[in-house]
Amino acid sequence: MTKLWAGRTAAETAQLADDFNSSIAFDSRMAKQDITGSMAHAAMLGAKGIITEDEAARLIDGLQGILDDLESGALPIDMQAEDIHMFVEQVLTQRLGEVGKKLHTARSRNDQVALDFRMYLRDEIDTLTALTKTLAAVLCDKAEEYKDAIMPGYTHLQRAQPVTFGHQLMAYAMMLVRDLGRLSDCRRRLNVSPIGCCALAGTTYDTDREMEAGALGFDGICLNSIDGVSDRDFAAELCAALSIEMMHLSRLSEELILWSSWEFQFIELPDAYTTGSSIMPQKKNPDMAELVRGKTGRVYGDLMGILTVLKGLPLAYNKDMQEDKEGVFDACDTAKLCLEVMAGMLPGMKARREKMLKAASEGFINATDLADYLVTKGLPFRSAYKLSGSAVAQCIREGKTLETVSLEEYQKISPLIEADIYEHIDLGTCVSRRVSAGGTSVGSVEKQIAAVREFLSE
What does pTM read for this prediction? Predict the structure, then answer.
């Protein structure tokens, strides 16, 4: 295929160099954005009289025909082309003749690729946002189902205080709410148009960059043409946002893996999202959750890749920036797949309430409630804390729980303790009395669910 940049040189490069230089293997996924951007560019050129209105109409019709043929499969992409931009322009010129050569007036591949990339990632963010909302809604549904299922809450992976399973799940829903905020912020900063910056210095043509930006759904234009072609902050920012979101999915995956283990037995994952062993017939492996956890590292690598590519680049455009796409595409693909898998798996997850409650009953996780009880009787918290700790130590020595200590024994610990202690340290009471905003009581969890659902509906 003839090089569109022939002129200064004979454009004769070694086949190895051509292959090394080519980006069509991965930038061909931006074909729709490239063609849509070119249609807006042709319309602007016609409106400003840089080309005739008839020429603009012919270019737009020709571009629409290429897009239709690509989408129907009638036109295969030539993988020998250098990139998607040259492929589209050469097909257009083959179909329209000389008028096809006018499309590239008042632009460069530098601002063209920046435009395509922003438009493509804008679409990806919209898809990622929808998938994140779906998963958040699934978590709300499961939290509603298990809003009163008592389980041990953990710190340092040690049983700490009683919570509900619904409360635990809503912690992950809150993480996704923040992820949605980051995606929205990234989209807002991304959504300015670089087209018209040309190679780096702008153009001598009387263009209307605002017209072109508006037609393509941008909120404005890049105000500095050098920055417009060299900025890839939006790509790094999206990778950063996805790295944080994948970290959240990985933490959830880790808990699903632990909870479904024989040692915990808190949950059972659906058969459709687990696998067996090739040699051990009793196994039910949480492979999907493990893969989500593993793929998190992959997205982290994509983030480090784009940051490393950009860190030493002088202004403006450099060919190094061709390396900006594959990692970001991979991060988007990976995050989308993980979100879909998680949203498919969680509806079939079943909690074993009795296992959770038994675990909660065995770890002295109501010790803080014993201390709080003594505070209501007039003791300072630190004194109450020490007495509660002494009671736990005694229980451990004697193989008891706080619930099985007799009232007589309690009164030896402190004469302030009365018969109502047993109601106060009952796990159900411990949960229901935690009515502070954001706490684990059923009413509080219901408010959390309502708040997230309201956010998702806006």
Answer: 0.93
